[in-house]
């Protein structure tokens, strides 16, 4: 049995939504210092016919392994066109299931970074637009520290 599923190989060989959005409405990054994987997500927010905020466009840049690239590509295809509420309801476990066969345990961390970057990008959009930030979104990932209600990065990743 191959180590990676067909879905992982498909998104690694032909990633979707790669690139940068000029003047994004929100951007977020996530990474793992131990393995060196890092990704950035860029969002363009629009409205659907009901007036709900949706992810009109999403792009990413990833410097990382096969799983990191594939899962970021897959995530962008899953949330593009979705409402922000729907995108925020997407869990790390959902992405792991969508990737196909069980991942090797040492690759699980790679498979969940994209979800962190997405939440950071939505958080950034909320901040820029002075929107109320839900408690769920306010919870801070490992590489952030909440001080006085303002999230500050402890580790800043270099540009790629």
Summary tags:
6 helices, Sufe protein. Chain: A, disordered C terminus, 160 residues, 37% helix, single chain, alpha+beta, three-stranded antiparallel beta sheet, two-stranded antiparallel ribbon
Tell me what the structure shows.
This protein has about 160 residues and is of the alpha+beta class. It has one domain: Sufe protein. Chain: A. Helices cover about 35% and strands about 20% of the residues. The protein has six helices and five strands; from the N terminus they run H-E-E-E-H-H-H-H-H-E-E. The strands form two sheets. Strands 1-2-3 form a three-stranded antiparallel sheet. Strand 4 and strand 5 form a beta hairpin. Helix 2 packs across helix 5. The longest helix is centred in the last third of the chain and has 21 residues. The protein is globular. The C terminus is likely disordered.
SSE order: HEEEHHHHHEE
| Average pLDDT | 81
Backbone shape: globular
Rg (C-alpha, Å): 15 Å
User: Which CATH class applies here?
Assistant: Alpha Beta
Entry summary:
The chain is of the alpha+beta class.
Strand-helix topology:
Elements: H1 6-13, E1 26-31, E2 38-47, E3 53-63, H2 66-79, H3 84-88, H4 92-98, H5 108-128, H6 135-138, E4 144-147, E5 150-153
Antiparallel strand pairs: 1-2, 2-3, 4-5
Helix pairs in contact: 1-2, 2-5, 4-5
